[in-house]
Design goal:
two-stranded antiparallel ribbon, 4 domains, about 60% helix, alpha/beta, 5-stranded parallel beta sheet, 7 strands
Length: about 425
């Protein structure tokens, strides 16, 4: 059953025009001639529309695009409405060029190719052509977002360098930042805060979401990457958002998001969240006290708007088991000893100079995150990144096995029974080879 707030009048005429593309005169004519939609009137005589009104208008627009007159569309709507009862119109989608068109795919390929040879001018030419042919939302999703995904896959497979990936990301970021600044003034009530949790630097999805929300008329406060928990209460007091949306791409930043979620709960601000780490490990979302918004930006947008229209409390989240809390405190206390012991063990095996320092740092960071989130199984997916990090960062299976064995023996030596979750997990990795 849809909540009562779905029919609560909260959108002014400007917001409805922005959302549906229907001109004010047409909306007034539909209301006068057909009694549809039926907006609420304030004491001052101003129209206020509910989310249901917006969905009905979009439904009517879609029927017009299919060839019906507005009169025929209204009659069809009346016919499908159960007697004496309000029904819910399936949200309409606006007519846009096909996102899978050859032209857009070719432009994306041209943009990626230009980025890989550091050709800014050629990349910009592909971008300008794309914006001339397609709506900005589509260009951002299909050219920039998918283009960066192609570049990221190339890096993961060792075909793309970090420098090439950074060049492409910088071009996309600058363009979307310009679009965010050029977005029209908000016309919808309420404010949304968008940001990344502490230590999360992969900000492009959150920046793109900010643009898409602003294009739909929302007031969005964008805080960017690596937002600290400290002073968050003061920021909320100063800005008063109705919803905070955070994106996490890595396991350790998901753990930091957990801490941020608790801080937001204390301030009574609902949290919406998403990101690559939740796509790789969907069960992880159940550990965050907030609302998981979806796997893709196309899913995140309506989910965020629904939360703004119909706020609801997040499902309760069980805290980590007491054994995990004890293991986390113990591991943090002994981590330097474990790291040093692992380094000595690797030196004894003659492999220390060849194992990148980041492998040990990443493993330790992920162990802390998994313990914070209450399950060492969250680390299993991260092992793929240790096995195949792309280009010069790739660790051969033999070196990785030696590294894990050295770390396992160091953990055995320096952790007592409180560290059992860590030692047991390392033992499984060593056994699996």
């Amino acid at each position: 059953m849809l909540p009562q707030s779905y029919q609560t009048p909260i959108y002014n005429l400007g917001a409805v025009v922005q959302e549906t593309g229907v001109k004010p005169d047409a909306l007034r004519a539909w209301e006068r001639r057909y009694g549809l939609p039926r907006p609420h009137r304030t004491d001052g005589g101003h129209r206020l529309y509910s989310q249901r009104d917006v969905d009905i208008i979009q439904w009517l627009v879609t029927r017009q695009q299919e060839g019906l007159s507005i009169r025929q569309a209204v009659e069809l709507w009346r016919a499908r409405e159960p007697a004496g009862r309000e029904s819910f119109p399936a949200p309409a989608t606006r007519s846009t060029p096909s996102a899978t068109s050859d032209a857009l795919a070719d432009l994306r390929a041209a943009w990626v190719s230009a980025c890989l040879v550091f050709d800014k001018d050629e990349a910009e030419q592909a971008t300008v052509r794309a914006f001339a042919l397609y709506p900005p939302e589509m260009v951002c999703l299909e050219l920039f977002l998918k283009g960066l995904a192609d570049v990221g896959l190339g890096w993961y497979e060792g075909r793309v360098t970090v420098q090439q990936e950074h060049f492409a990301s910088a071009l996309a970021m600058r363009r979307v930042e310009t679009l965010v600044e050029a977005a029209a003034a908000p016309v919808r009530p309420g404010r949304i805060m968008t940001a990344c949790p502490p230590e999360e630097e992969h900000v492009f999805p959150v920046l793109l979401l900010t643009f898409l929300l602003r294009r739909r008329g929302w007031d969005v406060l964008y805080l960017g990457a690596n937002v600290p928990i400290e002073q968050m209460a003061a920021t909320i007091t100063a800005t008063r958002p109705q919803l905070a949306i955070f994106g996490a791409q890595q396991l350790h930043t998901a753990a930091n998001l957990l801490a941020m979620a608790r801080a937001l709960q204390h301030e009574d601000i609902p949290l919406g969240f998403g990101g690559g780490v939740f796509n790789r490990s969907p069960v992880l979302a159940a550990r965050i006290p907030g609302h998981f918004l979806g796997l893709t930006l196309e899913q995140v947008l309506p989910a965020a708007e629904y939360l703004m229209a119909a706020p609801r409390p997040a499902s309760p989240v069980e805290p980590p088991a007491q054994a995990y809390e004890a293991a986390l405190a113990h591991y943090r206390e002994r981590q330097l000893l474990v790291d040093a012991g692992a380094w000595q063990n690797m030196q004894a095996q003659g492999i220390a100079p060849e194992v990148p320092g980041w492998a040990g740092r990443r493993l330790a960071r992920c162990i802390v995150a998994a313990l914070s989130l209450g399950s060492m199984t969250f680390l299993d997916g991260e092992m793929e990144w240790l096995r195949h990090m792309g280009g010069d960062l790739t660790v051969s299976p033999g070196l990785l096995a030696g590294f894990l064995q050295a770390y396992y023996h160091a953990a055995q030596a320096h952790l007592d029974e409180r560290g059992a979750p860590v030692v047991d997990w390392l033992a499984r990795q060593v056994d699996d080879g």
